[in-house]
Amino acid sequence: MFEIIVPQFDWEENPSCADWFIRKLVADLSLAAQANELQLTIAESPTRWNPGLPRCGIAHKYNDEWFFQLQGGCIFRFSPTEEVDLRAGGVLLVPRNMPHQEIIHAAEGRPFANLVLILNETVVTFHLALSANRGPYMDVRRQVTLTSPAFYQGMTSALVHAGNQEIANRLLSVLFARIGLDLDEAFRGTAHNNIHHLARRAMNLIMEEERPPLLSVAEVAERIGCSPNYLSNIFRSSYSISLKEFLLTTRLERARDMLLDGSLNASEAAEQCGFRDASYFGRVFRKRYGCTPAHLRRA
After folding, report:
1. Which tens digits make up the pLDDT trace of 189-218?
2. DSSP state of 10
3. 197-298 maps to which CATH number?
4. Residue 252: is it exposed, middle or buried by C-beta count within 10 angstroms (0-12/13-18/19+)?
5. Closest C-alpha to 144, from 30, 226, 26
6. In degrees, to the nearest 5, what angle opens at C-alpha 69 toward C-alphas 173 and 145?
């Protein structure tokens, strides 16, 4: 039977203890997966890809999100009639482009706690989320950047096609082993133990569905309230990628999703994502994805 207890202590005042315990949580999840105790759910909803329907919560629209429930529960609401109530031992994948609301609650006499893996093409982050001291909110603790986004994308694809819970648990044990190794690397030095709060604000701002999208480091810095050079430095230190490159990658990902959706042609997708020069858009798109925007739309 799955059982992990998250202790109550001051995570900010005891960073070394927090690092050790998060690493232990991942090791315990790996053991639970080896014992075939975890239950994988892949979120699906007919509201996906439909921009005409009302939002039901904050969306990490351009990321895949993995949720590993440690204790308590969390309701993931995708529409007024579609939701998943994740309990201890549950693993939920919310694929990119699925807006959702998260409602935390106590279950089996224990408060909410989960681990969250968020990934896109260039950045992978991992954090612990706990019940806040006041109200039905959550606190994010010890967010770190992990290496090798390609590995996590490949593992996500494998888990989506796992076929049954036994195979899923075997794959999850591999996933947790890799997360553990990446955490060991992140926790070795002090420089990457925490993501700077301004870098996190910039990341969240960029990942919101902006119309028009943010195009430059200067625009983001102005919204955050700091200098472009300072924000660029702390963003690279926090996420191991330049802010300029991340802005471009995010816009290309959004354009790719629009083309795959089939709702816009190449010129329209370029314009929606802030590419004023169609030739430049075609060049950077082909360099990133190995084909032209028009070819991807026809595929």
Report:
1. 544 446 777 888 888 777 765 556 677 889
2. -
3. 1.10.10.60
4. buried
5. 26
6. 70
Q: Is 216 left (phi over 0), alpha (psi -120 to 50) or beta?
A: beta
What is the spatial distance between Cα 126 and Cα 234, in angstroms, rounded to a whole number?
A: 18
Which amino acid, one-letter code, is at 232?
A: S
The answer to whether residues 40 and 84 touch, using CB atoms and an 8 Å cutoff, is no
DSSP state of 38: -
pLDDT tens profile 215-272: 788 988 888 888 989 889 888 887 778 888 888 888 888 888 777 777 778 888 888 8
CA distance 166 to 172: 10
Q: Which amino acid is at 222?
A: E
Indicate if the pLDDT at residue 145 is higher than 50.
yes
Q: What is the pLDDT of residues 84-115, one digit of tens each?
A: 999 999 999 998 777 788 889 988 888 899 99
Per domain, the residue ranges of the chain are 15-188, 197-298
Output b/e per residue, 164-183; b: 16+ Cβ within 10 A. Answer: eeeebbebbbebbebbbebb
